[in-house]
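dumping this here so i dont lose it
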């Protein structure tokens, strides 16, 4: 829903549920404000609290009818016991198709300007289990809190390539992007007259040869970067994103 520059791909997000039956993979469009996991549960008629495992995020670059470019981020979940069906189904064409996704969705009816974002964040560790965090600079949302390295996925960019780029820019470390940990969403209304909706993908990232963390980007949202021992994280003031991601490692900090 963010205004695109001329020629930039339209952005879409879809959610998919891997099942043990036929069809093996169900799919649906994620509308503004919807949580991808909730959409996946709805596809399978599952209970609102049914456990799901996030399996993958696939970046698809396609053309809508008429030739307009589309960037589609497809978020894949599986229900309990269905995870093994995903590798065999991964090569199949996923629905909804680019043609089905070409139609623009209606804007929220709250009078605010909608801004939509897909972001990729890393739970970044070294071989000793130390955790790499970045400090949000003044003038940006969450200023003064420690954050997970990562950020927005550019149009036409793969989520993993975006994360590796962001880790280098924000911390000076070259990491290996590994397992998808989870995918969640966040919505904040009224910020500067905007309705901001983001889908967050969290990956494990391993820095095999860590060095001193240093910020390489200039005039960006990162003021500092540091390695922390796991026991130090609990005493840190963390961003909402960091608290949500690090909860999957059993780590948390202060608000």
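and the seq i came up w/
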């Amino acid at each position: 829903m963010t205004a695109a520059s001329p020629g930039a791909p339209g952005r879409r997000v879809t959610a998919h549920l891997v099942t043990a039956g036929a069809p093996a993979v169900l799919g649906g469009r994620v509308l503004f404000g919807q949580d991808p996991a909730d959409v996946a549960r709805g596809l399978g008629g599952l209970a609102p609290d049914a456990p799901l495992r996030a399996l993958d995020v696939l970046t698809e670059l396609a053309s809508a009818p008429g030739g307009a470019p589309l960037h589609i981020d497809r978020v894949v979940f599986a229900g309990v016991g269905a995870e093994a069906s995903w590798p065999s189904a991964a090569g199949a064409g996923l629905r909804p198709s680019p043609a089905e996704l070409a139609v623009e969705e209606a804007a929220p009816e709250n009078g605010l300007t909608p801004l939509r974002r897909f972001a990729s964040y890393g739970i970044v560790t070294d071989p000793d289990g130390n955790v790499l965090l970045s400090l949000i600079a003044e003038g940006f949302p969450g200023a003064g809190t420690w954050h997970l390295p990562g950020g927005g996925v550019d149009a036409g960019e793969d989520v993993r390539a975006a994360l590796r780029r962001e880790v280098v820019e924000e911390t000076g470390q070259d990491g290996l992007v590994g397992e998808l940990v989870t995918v969640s969403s966040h919505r904040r209304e009224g910020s500067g007259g905007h309705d901001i909706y983001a889908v967050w993908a969290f990956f494990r990232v391993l820095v095999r040869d860590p060095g001193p963390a240093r910020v390489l980007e200039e005039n960006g949202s990162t003021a500092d970067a540091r390695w922390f021992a796991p026991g130090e994280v609990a005493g840190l003031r963390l961003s909402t994103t960091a608290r949500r991601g690090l909860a999957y490692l059993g780590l948390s900090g202060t608000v």
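The first strand starts at residue 10 and ends at 18.
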